Amino acid sequence: MSTVAVTDETFDAEVKNSTVPVVVDFWAEWCGPCKQIGPALEELAAEYGDKVKIAKVDVDSNPNAAAAMGVRGIPALFIFKDGQVVSNRAGAAPKAALQSWIDESI
Asked: CB 3.0-4.6 Å disulfide test: which of 16, 72, 80, 94 passes with 22?
């Protein structure tokens, strides 16, 4: 499975109503740290397969979802489980750190 692009309109359906845990990455095209973690998130999406969904929300195109989550800086990462935020973190991190954060949270 690859990452899923989520919009303001699809946020509830893709994230809050998901039957599997969801990692949400709030990012923007102009954000250097966002681009750094992008490939790691793609790899993790493939490795987790159907067990975890990794969603990406472009904050420039979808400001409402970011505002609703109180995102003030990017990249901002949230893990949702059963429709609720169970963990969040900000900033770039290596793939191994992201993976252990996801594993601890789900």
From this structure: 80
